[in-house]
């Protein structure tokens, strides 16, 4: 953990503190920074960022080029050049990507993908901790959109299945107006929730508690 902490400090990574401010991480002040729900200091995404910084930070600090060989191919590792960058340029390394953390993956599978009791519920904080802001925001939108679709779905079924008699000619215009109004309200409520989510994960100083209540 100390290696990751020092890497985060060198990267000037921003993390949320217990006073609601997002500050540059400092290993010497580690107790001031908010931990993950499982007690770990860094999220899976933050750990990957630190590991990536460390492996790309392996550079040639000697005073000369170093000859490297892979199969029948020979190339030179230049001064102050990242070793991994050179290996990528030479085609030795094709791709760098993180492996799944099996415990986290199974937890998300059980509490999220296989949760049939409330299929619209999203463990957004866990998704954010594992995948980051973009993926968490996408699934927050998907969950909200699925719940909101209940209203036009019920209205559409009623329009098709119920005979309104002499008022039938008013049904379609009323349904059109309802759907347009629904779209406007959905957009406004989503903008509000989206702003709250983004502020929650990248909070403005002093607003962390208010944002938490707003999202919940």
TrEMBL record:
- What is the membrane topology noted in the UniProt record heading this document? Multi-pass membrane protein
Molecular function GO labels: chloride channel activity
InterPro entries given in the database record: Anoctamin, Anoctamin_TM
Q: Which domain of life is it from?
A: Eukaryota
Q: Which residues form a coiled coil?
A: none
Q: Which GO terms describe its cellular component?
A: membrane
Q: What PANTHER family does its record include?
A: ANOCTAMIN (PTHR12308:SF73)
In Swiss-Prot or TrEMBL terms, this protein is called Anoctamin transmembrane domain-containing protein
Please name one Pfam family that this protein belongs to.
Anoctamin
Q: Name the source organism.
A: Triticum urartu (Red wild einkorn)
Keyword RNA-binding present in the record's keywords: the answer is: no
Per the database record, which ranges form the Anoctamin transmembrane domain? Answer: 128-202
Query: Mainly localized where?
Result: membrane
Q: Which residues cross the membrane?
A: 138-158, 170-190
Q: Where in the cell is it found?
A: Membrane
**Keyword entries, A-Z:** Membrane, Transmembrane, Transmembrane helix
């Amino acid at each position: 953990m100390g290696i990751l902490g020092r890497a985060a400090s060198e990267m000037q990574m921003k993390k949320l503190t217990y006073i609601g401010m997002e500050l540059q991480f400092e290993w010497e002040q580690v107790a001031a920074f908010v931990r993950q729900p499982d007690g770990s200091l860094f999220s899976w995404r933050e750990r990957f960022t630190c590991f990536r910084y460390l492996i790309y930070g392996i550079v040639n600090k000697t005073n000369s080029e170093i000859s490297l060989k892979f199969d029948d191919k020979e190339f030179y590792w230049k001064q102050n050049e990242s070793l991994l960058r050179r290996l990528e340029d030479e085609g030795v390394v094709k791709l760098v990507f993180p492996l799944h953390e099996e415990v986290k993956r199974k937890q998300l599978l059980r509490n999220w993908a296989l949760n049939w009791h409330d299929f619209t519920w999203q463990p957004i904080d866990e998704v954010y901790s594992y995948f980051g802001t973009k993926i968490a925001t996408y699934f927050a939108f998907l969950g909200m959109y699925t719940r909101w679709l209940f209203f036009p779905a019920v209205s559409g079924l009623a329009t098709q299945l119920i005979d309104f008699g002499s008022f039938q000619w008013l049904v379609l215009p009323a349904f059109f107006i309802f759907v347009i109004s629904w779209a406007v309200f959905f957009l406004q409520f989503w903008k509000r929730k989206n702003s709250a989510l983004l502020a929650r994960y990248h909070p403005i100083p002093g607003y962390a508690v208010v944002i938490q209540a707003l999202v919940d």
